[in-house]
Amino acid sequence: GQNIDQPTEMTATEGAIVQINCTYQTSGFNGLFWYQQHAGEAPTFLSYNVLDGLEEKGRFSSFLSRSKGYSYLLLKELQMKDSASYLCAVREMWYKLSFGAGTTVTVRA
Amino acid sequence: DADVTQTPRNRITKTGKRIMLECSQTKGHDRMYWYRQDPGLGLRLIYYSFDVKDINKGEISDGYSVSRQAQAKFSLSLESAIPNQTALYFCATSVLSIRGGYNEQFFGPGTRLTVL
């Protein structure tokens, strides 16, 4: 089975930085994805890590440590439109993505 | 136009009814998936298909069946709907890339199903 944990909710102020942690214990590992999901909408791809280290993509960065079973998504210069759920997903095998329950981020003015 | 479409977008039905949810894609992807999303549980895989002749059960396939009518179409059926199948259902697609790449999944807009 798989266990993917992330905090349920986080709140931050516009312009600030928020870090969403994800820890995982899975039977296999072929990469870790972060998705953004606005309420009632489809998840959309944000980032992908398969090797240890930091991947930067504009205001969003994602970090992976395979030995620790740990990843984080860093959102910088928060904007109101960043209020959404952020899903951590581990690809255990080529066909199988296992998702965490998601972290709801609320950005306050 | 959206690359992955789902119909219907919302459906309310009664216990015992047969329901079909449809998914179509114009991305040309060979892999298609059905997930359900419940509050606090995340997305869970129901069925997946690598091509028209390949159908596989996911982690929660009981009570569901699927049909891959063509590369672009993948339907999910609930033979006899029950209230605990009330959820948000997503179809997703991905490409087979043996040379690597992200191979991320692209999601449709979802179908909100309520079983009374």
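The interface with chain B takes residues 4, 8, 31, 33, 40-45, 48, 87, 89, 91, 94-97, 99-102 of chain A (CB under 8 Å).
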